[in-house]
Amino acid sequence: MQAEVSLREQIGAFYALETMLLDENRLRDWLELIDEDVRYVLPMRETRLGAPRESSAPIFYLYNDDKDSLITRVARLETGMALVESPVSATQRLVTDIHVIDSGSALVDVRSSFLVMQARDEQNETTFAGRRIDRLKITPDGFRVLRRDMLLVHYVLPRTISMFF
Amino acid sequence: MITMPGTEIYWDPEIYAREMDVVFGSAWLFVGHESTIPNPGDFVANYMGDDPVIVVRDRSGAIGVYLNRCRHRGNKVCLYDSGSTKSFRCSYHGWTYGLDGSLAAVPMLDKGYGADFPRAELGLAAPPRVASYHGLIFASWSVDGPSLEAYLGDDLRWYLDTFAFDDPDGLEVLPGRHRYMIPANWKLLAENFGGDMYHFASTHASILMLGRDERSDRIRTSGDRAAETIYHSLEFVHPSHPPHGILQLSFGEGANEGDMEQAKRLSPAAAEWVKERHARRARLVAGRVSKPTAFHTGTIWPNLSFNGFGSAFYARTLVQWQPRGPETTDVWQWALVEKSAPQEVKEQMAFVLTQRQAAAGMVAPDDVDNFQRMRDVLHTTRAAKLEFNYDLGGSQTGTLMPDLPGRVMDMATESYHRSFYQYWGAIMGRPLA
C-alpha cells in the first residue's frame, strides 16, 4: 500500500512538472519528458448506435503523433508566425484523479483526468476537459511518456486545438 | 467593380434567418457519403442549414433523407451521429418511423386516434429531392431548380471527375469525423476555401518556414516541395447554376515528382500506385493544350468545401460549414482516401491531413484565430460602419486558359468572392449595385 502511494506521488510530481512546462510554454523542455518511441493519440468522440462501421481504413485522428511529428509541431510554434500562439495563449492545466492501472519495474500504466483553460485575445476563453491513459517508462532520469491515449469530453470541440494535453 | 454588401451580412440575425430559408432552402446541400452507410438500416445524422436530418439506407438499398423531428410533438427521433437500426422511435410518446421515413407504429392507435388517422401523411418530413454524385449524397428542399449535375455544372464536374473522383474504386470515408466551432459567419469560411489563395502566405507562414529536413518533409504536401509548380485559381460562374470556386490548380511536373519522391520512400507498391495514378490523369488531360495535374481546394455553393486533392499523400477532405447563428459556424470535417491505394499510402494520407488542415492540425487552427479576431471587431459601433475590401485582382479579365473549363485566373484574385456575393445578393433580394 505504502509503495503504491509512493508511486502515485511520484507520478503526480511528474505530471506537475509537465503541466508547469506546458503552462510556461517551455515546449522544448516538455519534449524531453516524451520518449523517443512515443505514440501520442487523440481520437474525436462520436456517438454510434450499434457496432462500429466495418472498415480497414485508418482512423482520422485529432492527434496521431510520434516524437518527430511532436517536434515538428513545436518547431512550427517556435517560428513565431503561428497565429494560434502569437501572442502566446495563457493556459492553466489541472491534472487529477491519478490512478495506477498497472506497474512493473520498467513501465507504469496510469489513468488521469485533465482540464485546461486557454485564454487568448482578451476574453476568448476555451476549456478542454478529458482523460488519458499513459504508459510511462521508468528511466534513471525519471518517467518518460511512452504512450498517451487521450479522450476529450467534447462531442463538438469548442475551438480548434493548438496545445498539448 | 461591383459594390459589395456591408458587413452586416456577417452578423445581422434577420439576414441570417432569411439566408436559412432562401439560400439553404434553394441549394443542393451535402448530407453524407454513401460509403458510410453501406447496408440497409445504416444511417448518419447531418444538418441541412440549421435543420437536423437523418440520411438512411432503407431495406431496398435506396437512400432517403428525413428531417430529424417527430411529427407528433417535434422531438428528435435520432440521437446518434451514425449507426445501424431497424427504425427510428421517438422517445416522448413512442411514434416509430421505418427506414423509409414512414410512420410505422403509433401507440394506442386504434383506441386513441381511430380509423381515420392519416398515418400515411405523417411520415418524417423529407426534402423532395435527393441525388448522389460519385458517392456524395446531396439533398434539396426545393422542388424545382437544376438537377444536381446541372447545379454543379459541366465545368466544375470536369475537374472533379478528373482530379477528385478518378480512382477506379472511388473514395472511402475514414472513421472519425472532426467537429469544431468557429466564431464566424459561414460565408466567410465558404469564400476562404473557394477563392482565397491570397491568405495562405500570411496566415500559414509558419508551416512554410519549417526547415527542409526529413522530419518536416513528412508533413509537406507534394506541391510545397516543388518550387516550379505554378498555381492558378478557378471560378465557375454561369446563369444555370450558383458560383463554385477552386484553388491551387497546379501545372508542371513538380507535384507529380514530389508524389513520386514520397512514394519511393514508402514502398514499391506505393510507387506503383502513384505511377498508375499519374498515368491515368495524364490520359484524362491528353489532347488538351493546357494540362493541369491537380487542384487542391474549393467550395461548392453554398457550404461544402474540399481540400487535400493536390497531393497523392494528403487525405482528401470534405469540410462542411454548418451555420449556427449569424456569427458561429459548426465545422464538420471528413477524411477520404482513394480505395485503390495501398494501406501504407492511406495511413500516410491520414497522417498528413491530421497534421495540417484538421481540427488539431498546423493549418486550420491559424484560420480560426483570424476569424475570432475579425468577429471581435465586426460590429462595434464605428467598425460596423466600415466595409471589407474585396478588390483583389479586379483588373483581371477573361480566362488565362481558354481551352480549359471554367475561368482560370492568376491566384492573386478575389473574383470568386465577388461572384459569390453577387449570386447571394440576387437570391436574397439584395442585388449588388
Features:
heterodimer, A: 165 residues, alpha+beta, Nuclear Transport Factor 2, Chain: A, B: 433 residues, Rieske Iron-sulfur Protein, Naphthalene 1,2-dioxygenase Alpha Subunit, Chain A, domain 1, 2 domains, 9-stranded antiparallel beta sheet, 4-stranded antiparallel beta sheet, 14 helices, 19 strands, 30% helix
Q: What does this 3D model show about the protein?
A:
- The complex is a heterodimer of chains A (165) and B (433).
- Chain A is 24% helix and 42% strand.
- Chain A has a single domain (2-44, 62-152), classed as Roll (Nuclear Transport Factor 2, Chain: A).
- In chain A, strand 5 and strand 6 (124-139) form a beta hairpin.
- Chain A is α+β, with helices and mostly antiparallel strands and 165 residues long.
- Chain A has a six-stranded mixed β-sheet.
- Chain B is of the alpha+beta class.
- Chain B has helices spanning 13-26, 109-113, 148-152, 154-163, 186-195, 200-203, 205-209, 214-217, 222-225, 254-266, 268-285, 343-355, 364-376, 415-428, and strands spanning 29-33, 42-48, 51-57, 63-67, 82-84, 88-89, 96-97, 103-105, 129-133, 136-140, 171-173, 178-182, 230-238, 241-251, 297-300, 304-307, 316-323, 329-338, 407-410.
- In chain B, strands 11, 12, 13, 14, 15, 16, 17, 18 and 19 form a nine-stranded antiparallel β-sheet that branches. A four-stranded antiparallel β-sheet of chain B has the order 4-3-2-5, with no helix packed on it. In chain B, strands 1-10-9 form a three-stranded antiparallel β-sheet.
- The longest helix of chain B is centred in the middle third of the chain and has 18 residues, at 268-285.
- In chain B, 48% of the residues are buried.
- The model of chain B has no long low-confidence stretch (mean pLDDT 95).
- The interface between A and B is large, with 47 and 59 residues.
